[in-house]
Design brief:
This protein has about 425 residues and is α/β, with parallel strands linked by helices. It has two domains: about 15-185, Rossmann fold (3-Layer(aba) Sandwich), CATH 3.40.50.10860; about 195-350, NAD(P)-binding Rossmann-like Domain (Rossmann fold, 3-Layer(aba) Sandwich), CATH 3.40.50.720. Helix content is about 45%, strand content about 15%. It has 14 helices and twelve strands. The chain has helices at about 15-30, 35-40, 90-105, 125-140, 160-170, 195-210, 230-240, 260-270, 285-290, 330-335, 345-350, 350-365, 370-395, 400-420; strands at about 45-55, 60-70, 75-85, 110-115, 150, 220-225, 245-250, 255, 280-285, 295-300, 320, 340-345. Helix 1 (about 15-30) packs parallel to helix 3 and helix 6 (about 195-210) crosses helix 12. The radius of gyration is 20 Å and the shape is globular. It starts with 12 loop residues before the first helix and ends with a helix. The structure holds nicotinamide-adenine-dinucleotide. Nicotinamide-adenine-dinucleotide (NAD) binds near residues 153, 226, 249 and 323.
């Protein structure tokens, strides 16, 4: 079969990075040529103009995207990002990773992602609400609980999901909680969803520490990004007994070898939105944080922060990829040669978020709600199974852990497409 004829629509560093990962995985498992390109490229994308009224009476137009990468095994599923550096290519890469992630952990979803080019820190609460509602309004023809379901990601949260759920419900004329996940509990959110991604990261880190026979009480942890995922990862690891020695966000980074009081930092961010001027440690830079000696390094912010340049200088035992795509292809090659560093790849490491999103969607469709203990027990069972299957693939084919996880995810998506035929 000849190669895909594609435009430069998605072209960007991060999309090329996701494609290189795919190509390497496809080569490693000899994925037939005939199925490669249609497994790799997104099924469809939408770009929308989002005019909103600012508080000062002027009108401003933002640009938003939604990429549905795969709809072969069920509705597509993926977060919505509000960030000033969003590009269509980035959203496409994130959607692609969602496909491999859902497939790896066995969820009946394809991957999707959304994004709006906006710095949410520059919006008032009213402006944020108008933008969130406008985005959902524009996406009404393309989203539904059985087509594509949104969730929070960088720069969005439960409140944004509540406005989006309300906008969609008003449009269809009845309450439709299953249109988004990561909602407030009172609107049909799931127990345990807010902390699910971070809890999942921490749970996996704990099990890998157990494998390495490192007592969690002796582990030190550095976390980049102190939003939903980073702060909950830090809180859960601190609960297990680990010492959190560094945290950061886009405004500041702090180091405290004695241990940072994570609860105090969470309260600080609740009131101040950011870590700037937090007094729980010595100020350092985000770059220094990544290179601190520690047992666990958890990048939990943005893509492409572990590069060819800093990868040789990492001094962690476990690199837990809480963010999506934190490690460039070049850095990956360096890490493959540094056998002393255990990488927990993003598609496995942060999958707790989409797993509990799946539970939330199920609960919404059934109008039957589970307890937090039930949710977390089911989450850990799915993670255990996914971790075991990645370990098995790693040993069987002598792959790196990333290659093992990606090949499992990609293989199942490709197989589903092959079984269905050419259209999905
Ligand atoms: P968030 O907006 O709640 O938090 C992001 C944090 O990263 C903030 O503290 C922000 O200040 C910080 N940050 C942003 N740019 C930074 C930079 N250049 N350097 C250092 N810190 C920076 O977002 P989130 O939901 O926690 O998402 C974080 C990452 O986790 C993203 O890669 C996202 O795709 C991924 N993820 C999120 C979920 C989820 O359930 N929310 C699930 C899976 C993966």
């Amino acid at each position: 079969m000849s190669k895909a004829i594609v435009s430069k629509l998605y072209d960007s560093d991060v999309f090329r990075m996701a494609c290189r990962q795919f190509d390497k995985a496809a080569d490693a498992i000899n994925l037939p040529e005939a199925i490669r390109d249609r497994t790799k490229y997104p099924r469809r994308c939408m770009a929308v103009a989002l005019p909103i009224r600012r508080d000062n009476g002027t009108t401003v137009v933002f640009e938003g995207y939604r990429v549905q990468h795969s709809l072969s095994t069920g509705p597509s599923k993926g977060g919505l990002r509000f960030h000033q550096d969003v590009t269509l290519g980035e959203v496409a890469a994130l959607a692609m990773w969602m496909s491999w992630k859902c497939s790896l952990v066995g969820l009946p979803f394809g991957g999707a992602k959304g994004g709006v080019i906006v710095d949410p820190f520059n919006l008032s609460p009213g402006e944020l609400e108008r933008l969130s509602r406008r985005y959902m309004q524009e996406m009404v023809p393309f989203l539904s609980p059985h087509v594509d379901i949104a969730a929070p990601d960088l720069g969005t949260n439960e409140q944004v999901m509540a406005w989006m759920m309300d906008t969609y419900s008003n449009h269809v004329g009845h309450v439709e909680p299953a249109i988004v996940t990561g909602k407030p509990l009172v609107l049909g959110g799931s127990e345990g969803r807010r902390e699910a991604t971070g809890r999942g990261v921490a749970y996996l880190v704990k099990t890998y520490l157990d494998d390495l026979k490192i007592p969690v009480g002796q582990a030190t942890v550095a976390v980049q990004g102190f939003g939903n995922v980073g702060s909950e990862t830090a809180a859960a690891l601190a609960e297990y007994g680990a010492r959190i020695i560094a945290i950061s966000d886009h405004t500041a980074a702090f180091h405290n070898p004695q241990g940072i009081d994570v609860k105090k930092a969470q309260q600080y961010v609740q009131f101040n939105r950011v870590l700037h001027d937090f007094d729980g440690g010595e100020p350092i830079t985000n770059e220094q944080l990544l290179e601190l000696p520690c047992t666990v390094l958890a990048p939990a912010a943005i893509e492409r922060v572990i590069t060819e340049v800093n990868a040789p200088r990492l001094r962690c035992r476990i690199l837990a990829e809480a963010a999506n795509g934190p490690t460039t292809n070049g850095a990956d090659r360096v890490l493959e040669s540094r056998e002393e560093i255990e990488v927990i790849p993003d598609v496995l490491c942060n999958s707790g978020g989409v797993i509990v999103s799946y539970f939330e969607w199920l609960q919404n469709l059934q109008h039957y709600y589970w307890t937090r203990d039930e949710v977390l027990a089911k989450l850990y069972a799915v993670l255990d199974k996914a971790k075991a299957s990645v370990g098995y693939q790693q040993r069987k084919l002598k792959f790196s852990r990333r290659l093992a996880a990606l090949t499992l995810g990609i293989q199942r998506v490709a197989e589903a497409k092959q079984k269905r035929g050419l259209f999905p």
